[in-house]
Known about the structure:
Elements: H1 3-13, E1 26-29, E2 39-42, H2 47-56, E3 60-63, H3 80-90, E4 94-97, H4 100-104, H5 109-116, E5 123-140, H6 144-154, E6 157-158, E7 161-162, E8 165-175, E9 182-194, H7 196-209, E10 217-242, H8 243-253, E11 260-262, E12 268-278, H9 283-288, E13 293-297, H10 301-310, E14 313-316, H11 326-342
Helix pairs in contact: 2-3, 6-7
Amino acid sequence: xxxxxxxxxxxxxxxxxxxxxxxxxxxxxxxxxxxxxxxxxxxxxxxxxxxxxxxxxxxxxxxxxxxxxxxxxxxxxxxxxxxxxxxxxxxxxxxxxxxxxxxxxxxxxxxxxxxxxxxxxxxxxxxxxxxxxxxxxxxxxxxxxxxxxxxxxxxxxxxxxxxxxxxxxxxxxxxxxxxxxxxxxxxxxxxxxxxxxxxxxxxxxxxxxxxxxxxxxxxxxxxxxxxxxxxxxxxxxxxxxxxxxxxxxxxxxxxxxxxxxxxxxxxxxxxxxxxxxxxxxxxxxxxxxxxxxxxxxxxxxxxxxxxxxxxxxxxxxxxxxxxxxxxxxxxxxxxxxxxxxxxxxxxxxxx
Length: 351
């Protein structure tokens, strides 16, 4: 398939609009119109990873961490970034990155870690929402079915429901400017619920089939919101457990040899938060909601000291150790996709 076809499917599962504003995700190198025959999944686009992709003939690398994160002033062979980008371009290898959108999504990294720990129910720590809007269009009765067909063809979705719209009767009243004749016609009002951008696109399509040159419509913001997911997860143990005992559970479930611990091992814990990567910025919020244990990575000395004073224990499992599951998630998704598209067996293997 073409790169853009795979991207479209990936972004349906892991939408770009749930990424953090500071992040840089998506297709960062390459031509989305190019055909792909082999995909490599890697946590980072290191020079070694790129050399491996060249060796095995991969023409797309899907990474977690973006290869391009801050401004680049030149692309030459005299620096690491330049060498990497030149190798990718010269060998026609694209790079697509899924970072905080994959962290936050349903079935993403935070949720996956909870599942690995045997957690059945968890809540999102930093939930993101999208406002919903209502597009109302007024149309002659005889055009009602045609407009409904256009709405259904467009395929808007809302919280698991597709093509949510409402119809009602209305009365059109007007008087022509050049005469005194007053007109009164029975009309239909069709109101469609959806995202503002998609509703605007739908409106453009409606204008193409609407019988009037001037379309009567309105777009208003509603109180409805869609949860997009979010960073972090919070869960509670069925009963309190000593920190030291739960440490062994975490090490076993996540296949860890070493964990940096902040806190007393005999302390009882029950309420737990998880943020993959580096989650120290959440400490203030965790104190307010009464979290006993925070599982994350990249904790610095002063952050550890603050957490101790807040009464929050920490398992610093490491940045890499909390994110290498990325390859498992994408591999499974792409294997499921291969079965769906080609009715074939899983296509990925470890290299």
